[in-house]
Amino acid sequence: MPRAVSPRFTTAVAAFMIGASRTRHLSGPHRDTRPANGASTPR
């Protein structure tokens, strides 16, 4: 990902990726049902 984006957006994307992968790994078919680190929000 380009470094031109704001660090806030990068942090949000990183948190979303980590939360999504962690949530997928834990609960399988469910998608972001519960926040993994409290930063990601359910969609």
Topology:
Elements: H1 7-27
Protein architecture, described:
The protein has one helix at residues 7-27. With 43 residues, the protein is mostly helical.
Quick summary:
By secondary structure, the chain is mostly helical. The chain has one helix at 7-27.
**Number of DSSP E strands:** 0
Given helix and strand content, the structural type is: mainly alpha
Quaternary arrangement of the chains shown?
A: single chain
H and E order: H
End-to-end separation in angstroms reads: 23 Å
- In percent, how helical is the residue content? 40-55%
| Number of helical stretches of at least 4 residues | 1
Give the low-pLDDT segments.
none
Strand content: under 5%
Mean pLDDT: 67
Radius of gyration: 11 Å
How would you sum up the global shape? elongated
What about the largest sheet? none
